[in-house]
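re: that chain from earlier
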Amino acid sequence: MFLHPGVALAAGEGNHVRDVVAHALESTAGPGTELVLRGTSAPAFSLRVESGGKRLVVDIANADLSGGGEPITSPVGLVGGALTQTFKTSAGTMTRLTVNLLKPASYRVFADGNDLRVQLAPAAQTAPGAPSLFPAPAAAQAVASPELADVRFERRKVGKGQTDRVIIQASEVPSYQLAAGHDGRLRLTMKNVRVPANLARALELGAFGGPVRKVSTSFDAQTHSAVIELERAGDDQGVLSVEGKQIVWSFDAAPAAHAKGPARDTSKTVTVARERPLAEGPRVETSIRPVEPGHEGVDAEVSGGGEAGFTSTMNAQAGRYSGRRIDLDLKDADIHNILRLLADVGRVNIVTADDVSGSVTIRMRNVPWDQALDVVLQAKGLGMVRSGNLIRVAPLAALQKERELRLAAARQEYELTPLETRLIPVSYARADEIQARAKDLLSPRGSIAVDERTNVLIARDISGGLDNIEQLVRALDTQTPQVLIEARIVEATSRYQRDIGIQWGGDASFSEATGNPTGIAFPSSVGVAGGNYDGQSPTQGLSPTQPVIDAPNYAVNLPAAVGTGQGGALGISLGSINNAFNLGVRLSAAEASGLLRIVSSPRILTLDNREARINQGTLIPFAQLSAQGVQTTFQEAKLQLLVRPHVTADGSVSMHVKINRDEPDFNQTSARGDPTILKREAETDLLVMDGHTAVIGGIYTRNTGRNLDQVPFFGDIPILGVLFQRRRASDTRNELVIFLTPRIVNRAEALGR
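^ sequence. v structure.
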């Protein structure tokens, strides 16, 4: 009985596997192989395929090993070996049958009473439509032909992942045969199973983005079989299991498991050369894993000790073992038997050299099997080399000698390789700049020169070195990105002003001339008039009499700023018949509002990492007094855009930007009447996607004012105080916003996308 080390057997009710027998089958269709696993009750099993169709794994639920179960180590037909193991699971005890195939084969797994039969045939003999190599079991032939009841697809959540399931339901569980066609499709053939017309269909599953793209159901009239054909997105063959009267075909639906390819990196990374010095040995790994399909030709050397230039994987990377954990307790065990045991546990093939011998005594608990292999090899001074799907074990001295011979052969081949000369043209870059970078890729025998007239590199080296230089030139000699930068400077100004004022005055005379004397000696006459003389104010409308028009004297003179083209005024004049009393009132008011919008849009085209500048403006003259007299100097008021762009690998544009907008302000002048210069400037660094617009800055100002001019004391009188007041209000708003838009002109040529 062969037990997986460190796993105890669970006794109790259920199926008890007695032994496993393998024998050849003779048939008119060709040779085949059958494995029979004998038990005490009808088996419930599931099947999966590993290692690209070279390994079958059958799990039998609620079953243990009750006797026998010795591994099959000698080839029998298509079977290279078979191993029976028992595990404890949350659902109980499980027995696993692992069958290693010598070459890809079609297979048929079915229950025959209390036995489980695995029948194998060469893959070429199971073409669609060909007669089956294996006849159906006699018990199945005696039963009426079953019929498909349903073929459906469902997706289930399992923990943090998902599982896609193709469920095939029949009136009773049929025997089936699974084979892979040359087009990569999987064909599940069920002998003597009828297909109703409504189930002869195709399920398109590509929209789910899982490992199964399409499931087609059809009936093969020649073999009287139901055929389920499955089109995959990857190489996963899934796991077949029987649940009642259903055959469940399960696939892992993790997105990374069947992606069409690696995710594209937006960065522009090019591997020019991968250097491997002559003194470097083969690649060293820390744990042994089964060789993946397509990597059979890769050699890897793994050390078991620290002598002779080999690095001990146990000492170097002890934390990276990933094998199944086992328990070992052996005394004076032959090294060959231990290696065979570890090969069965790790599902790898191990070949030992003739000079490997000796015995080992070890006791390990809960140790990964690949770490146990390293320790055993280190203890015996052995090393291992992986070649294809085999691991060869030999003494370290022998491996070191082989390594030295390989290095010597490589050096000799290098010295005898003839030199070649190539002319490598450079289109966009400077050849001398690339020459400095290409020198590091030359071999010790190589040289490189530049022809400046034609911008060509003249390289002389072995073929591999020249290929590396050409690849470097192709990666670096690309069009320099050109960037068009457009700036928009938007300035908006809103103004509002309101001014309300009043002027009034008059005169009163008490004299004999006006017929109202005071009647006393002194003063015999009295005159009262406004004392604020304003010879500049218009007097029309104040009084029809000449004296008042010529010399208006106001008691309150607080007019609004009105004049031609702005505001308005209203004059009122009151007087007596004898001209003893005169009163004149003038109301003035003005209100102004305005909106101004200025848009400046400078744009400039430049190369990547090159500074560009564009400006527009005027020179304003200023007079200066000096010892030589009056001299005129000029001050520049301009709009300027200064930018240095850099195109990133993902197509964005990084920029250093400086924008100036200077303009003269004639509303604010010096004592000589020279205008002031209003300066606006923004300087920043930013990253913007190609063709997108960014707001790099803005300035918002608001000036509000309220002025009150009045005559003291009288202006504070409620209601009547307005006759002694002038009110002014103003609100000015100014907003400046700067927009920037970069565009890569030659994106396709420079970035390749």
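The first helix runs from residue 138 to 141.
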